[in-house]
Amino acid sequence: MKLKKELKTFPKGGVHPADNKLSANRPIEELPLPQTVAIPVSQHLGAPAKPIVAVGDTVKVGQVIAESGGYVSTNIHATASGIVAKIEDVMDATGYRRLAVIINVEGDNWLENIDRTPDIKSEINASQEEIIKKVQADGIVGLGGATFPLHVKLTPPKGKKAEMLLINGVECEPFLTADHRLMLEKGQEILVGIRIVMRALDVEKTLIGIEANKLDAIEYLRTLTEGDVGIHVIPLKVQYPQGAEKQLVEALTSHQVPIGGLPIDVGIVVQNIGTIFAVYESIQKNKPLVDRVITVTGKKLINPSNFLVRFGVPTIDLIKAAGGLPQDTGKIISGGPMMGKALNTSDVPVTKGTSGILVLSKNEAKREEVLPCIRCARCVSHCPLGLEPYLLMSLVEKGMIDEAEKEIITNCCECGSCAYVCPAKRPLLDYIRLGKSIIMQRNREANQKAVQEARK
Q1: Burial of 372 (0-12, 13-18, 19+ CB in 10 A)
Q2: Is the Cα dihedral 96, 101, 103, 109 positive or negative?
Q3: What is the C-alpha to C-alpha distance for residues 192 and 67, in angstroms, rounded to an integer?
Q4: Running DSSP on this structure, what letter comes out for residue 323?
Q5: Is 234 in contact with 252 (CB distance < 8 Å)?
Q6: What percentage of residues in the chain have a pLDDT greater than 70?
Q7: 310 beta partners
Q8: What pLDDT, on the 0 to 100 scale, is given for residue 2?
Q9: Is residue 367 over pLDDT 80?
């Protein structure tokens, strides 16, 4: 397949790392269950869910084990059947200990009302209200990385209206191929999922953005959407971070999301391919979000793969299924090499936010010597949001957090393009993340104080 027209992309900054899509041709395999799963009750942005099971309870796959802790929160479901052994803190991908429900696995018994047949259900009977309530009950969150509860995104704030749906099939992070495989293997289901979300948002137009390094997925989805006036597949130039919301919106529509704003501010809602498939399974198959496709990859792995994995399975099980941990492993990353975070233990359970597991050798993981900034401004020219990363790092390094906030540090999408191109190998993204976390914590504390004052 050849693309005739000039490919669309965002207009400012970005980089083009080597793709390294080692597992692109590996079909999705279902990973067997271990003897125990540790299911964190906070697998989403917002308030943690509250456990409703007790030690000794028997549970089935799909059963609610922790209820939503607020509006911006979701239910958590059992991903394996068996006996609740413990409810205690376990280490998660952030390096902190979080509350989890630990289940001793006994068989694989699912709730009877979940349709596990391969039959594709195309007819959509659920209403707009029923769709929003169902995805909330089934714990559906954004699977592109942010894990924002979907029901909130499908309910725009008062005064705002969605006019268009954008589907993120970009998967611009090097090494990751889970969304690519989903498009190839579950294309029909994904299109049903898109129509479900279109109904929930009451929109008539959808654009599916896919980078041009996935020509087979572009061709397949174009074949499936042929004659559909409401859904269009748009090939995009291979340019990282094309999959970031603001860059995708600009690439596909030329609209600019305002600083501090969201795509809904310009009438757009963005959803990831994996999220759309989860919506299909929720509405058409009555299946809660208990698993997802995860890429397990690395240049030294024997068998880079794409696995369908239940949440709560330890990371090491995925690595073993991909051939085992290489002897010269220097780092294990949750996610991709650009935006992922290094794990401090391979026992960390996978969650809704785990898009990939990347194993790097000691040579690949080695950080080079950090040198003084040479004022080349490469970080500025490659920032897709027009920020000044060298300045932001300097301000955070000096503890000048107020000044960093004035320089709009919170608008950073944490793509890492700045650190990637820095000839002095300065840890720009590390410091920007630190600054953002300090500001967000400060804002949370201020909001809590305001609420407490208002209640007096």
Answers
A1: exposed
A2: negative
A3: 28
A4: T
A5: yes
A6: 99
A7: 291
A8: 63
A9: yes
CA atoms within 13 A on the CB side of 219: 7
AA letter at 158:
K
Q: How many other CB atoms are there within 10 angstroms of residue 222's CB atom?
A: 16
Do the Cβ atoms of 237 and 225 come closer than 8 Å?
no
Which residue in this structure is represented by tokens 């989403």?
44
Place of tokens 């794990």: 343
Say how far apart CA 429 and CA 327 lie, in whole Å: 29
pLDDT at residue 1 in the model: 60
Amino acid type, 423: P
- The larger pLDDT score, comparing residue 177 to residue 70, is at 177
Segment holding 113, helix H or strand E: none
Residue 287, classed as helix, strand or coil, is coil
Q: Please name the residue ranges forming H helices in 202-292.
A: 215-225, 245-253, 273-285
Give CA–CA dist 325/340, Å, rounded: 19
Decide which of 3.50.50.60, 1.25.40.10, 3.30.1330.60, 3.40.50.11540 is the CATH code for 128-285. 3.40.50.11540
Peptide bond before 241: cis, by omega within 30 degrees of 0?
Answer: yes
- Map residue 141 onto helix, strand or coil: strand
Q: Which long-range contacts (CB under 8 A, 24 or more apart) does 315-319 make?
A: 315/343, 315/346, 315/347, 315/348, 315/349, 315/350, 315/357, 316/346, 316/347, 317/31, 317/34, 318/31, 318/294, 318/350, 318/357, 319/346, 319/357, 319/359
**pLDDT value at residue 3:** 66
As a whole number of angstroms, the distance between CA 76 and CA 62 comes to 9
Determine the Cα–Cα distance for residues 231 and 187; give it in Å rounded to an integer.
13
Does the structure show a pLDDT above 60 at 4?
no
